[in-house]
Automatic annotation (TrEMBL):
InterPro entries per the UniProt record, alphabetical: PDR_assoc
Residues covered by the Plant PDR ABC transporter associated domain: 53-116
Keywords recorded for this protein, A-Z: Membrane, Transmembrane, Transmembrane helix
Protein name: Plant PDR ABC transporter associated domain-containing protein
Length: 198
């Protein structure tokens, strides 16, 4: 539940500064209120209604666990455990739903653009072997400017190169195997493979 809450705060913040501000406020609320709610609802009831506390107290019809709960002012009914479990599952679903909505409908604060540096373009013109691409996020004052106007402004004011708008994507890889040629020292020690898997 806590992980889902932090993910939802990060998705709704959309910026490290805003997310840190939201996160600090929510952590303050959790520290101030969270311990009382958890101890009253589920954790204490789960512990003291367990088998190790089911001995009958002399001169009473209550078990030892129920007597301890009543003496400390906690609710001795077993349904408080299930209320705590239900609240945990409910908050998990709520935070995941908020996270999904934030990713679906909230746009980033800045417009993502790609900047090709002047050095990379001059190197590319000289030897045609490719160049470095630098990524940055820059805001645009008007959304209907053409690409050439944005590129000219970036070259004139920032001298960073040509600015290209792009849609950022996340790419993940799974089960990647990376290998290099076997070093000669290992071949001399009796390893006969051609590739060394790192």
């Amino acid at each position: 539940m806590s992980l889902d809450m932090i993910r939802m705060l990060g998705a709704t913040g959309r910026n490290i500064i805003v997310a840190n501000t939201f996160g600090s406020f929510v952590l303050l609320l959790l520290f101030a209120l969270g311990g009382f709610v958890l101890s009253r609802n589920a954790i204490v009831v789960n512990e003291f209604l367990g088998h190790s506390w089911d001995k009958i107290v002399p001169n009473s019809t209550d078990t030892l666990g129920v007597a301890v709960l009543k003496s400390r002012g906690f609710f001795p009914e077993a349904y408080w455990y299930w209320l705590g479990v239900g609240a945990l599952i409910g908050f998990t679903i709520l935070f995941n739903f908020g996270f999904t909505l934030a990713l679906t409908y909230l746009n980033p604060f800045d417009k993502a653009q790609m900047v090709i540096s002047e050095e990379a373009r001059s190197d590319d013109d000289d030897n045609r072997t490719g160049g470095a691409i630098q990524l940055s996020t820059r805001g645009s004052s008007s959304g209907n400017r053409s690409l050439s106007e944005a590129a000219i402004e970036a070259i004139q004011h920032n001298k960073r190169g040509m600015v290209l708008p792009f849609e950022p994507y996340s790419i993940t890889f799974d089960d990647i195997t990376y290998s290099v040629e076997m070093p000669q020292e290992m071949k001399n020690q009796g390893v006969f493979d051609d590739k060394l898997v790192l």
